[in-house]
Design brief:
- This protein is 1% helix and 44% strand.
- The protein is mainly beta.
- The protein has 2 domains: 1-51, no CATH class; 53-446, Porin.
- Strand 1 and strand 2 (13-21) form a beta hairpin.
- 36% of the residues are buried.
- Residues 162-167 have low confidence and may be disordered.
Length: 448
Amino acid sequence: MRLQLEAVASENLSGTVNFEIGTIQWGRANRGGALGADSTIVKIKHSYLDWTLPTTSIRTRMGIQRIFLPDFVTEASQVFDADTAGISLSVPFNEHVSLAAFWARLFNDNWDGNANAARANYLDNADLFGLTLPLRFEGFRLTPWAMVGAFGANAFRTHNRTNTASWYYGNAEGTGTDYGLGLSPSAYANDGRENVFAFATAFWAGLTGELTAADPFRLAWSFNYGTVNTGENALNRHGWYAALLAEYKFDWGTPGIYGWYSSGDDDDPANGSERLPNIEKNNESTSGLATIATLGTWTLGRDAALGSTLAGTWGLGLRLRDFSVLDRLKHTLHVNYYQGTNSSGMVRYIKGAPSRHNIVRPYGTDFNSADYYGLYLTDKDRALEVGLMSQYQIYENLRLLVEANYIALWLDQSSGVWGGFTDRGGVRRHANSTEDLWNVNLSFIYRF
């Protein structure tokens, strides 16, 4: 449950606090659902001050807030969309052009130092700075954007580990989440060099837009590029993503077709990753392209089965949005085909097969953990998703949401990809077993 309180002094000054209660799991003690129903699960989701700079139209928001980058195709950013501490500005120039800017302080003063507690809080900051330029015209919208990041060497260092490259990508101390893994390769060759312990820098840029001049026809597109430079080639990451959507709105529903492509890794663990880097997997958005495979589920969080971003995949999809056969009941149907763009030659390094490199695996050793943000799909792996989302408006403020989803997964289980292998010690490592995924859930949503 989310409860938002607003204190409005005037149209130029207000304060907002958004409380989040849950998620409560019935019967589970540490989620507030066991006998007695007591748990410390009331959280501050947002807490910010809105004000207008005197004698101007510049709007300023300061505090814990949602900051995100735009994408008119997926409706969910492939790079950054999160609740974070920061300052955001909105500067309207005229009815067609405006400028938005933000600074987000992701992490600072969390690292406890090395094993001797020396230099605690040293180089453990993580900051993002972004600009968007929304252009709005009749029947046409276009938004170019750019973002830079600065990450201290200890921003994502795991606990009190000493300065070794293998611990460069972990979780910010005390956060319990491996946020740095969206910036890292899935497997990289560690040569023992120390120059990775300076600041890492990152840069992203994108262009997204939509054409509605021929309404009811709509065309939307998006392109993102990102790069992370640590000073060590093996730890770097850079990649791109592009998507296109076309849909036509009828009285009875809106059919659409879409496709995307996102760059994938090559087979060299010494030259970094070729996938689009991102900084946050718990995107606030709900993807318009999927149900459970990516960011499709509205309420339960039981989504992102294949990934919260589309990095390292390409695909095609069909959807039929908001069609209705009964009053107050509407449905959205998705059918999506996915295939990986990562080289199957990278898998030997991920799963731990013998190689000439000293390999570090920040994520894990199989397809289910090699990508912290979902599954690691190679150019020999495929998946098919079918999902139906239905909404029934019971009352004006109460609706029933029912979802049914199925994902068929075909992984290459040959010895050269995800199949079994013999390690350096002569021990036989067997392949992982896989099963198709299905999910049915029901939610009651009350908004007031």
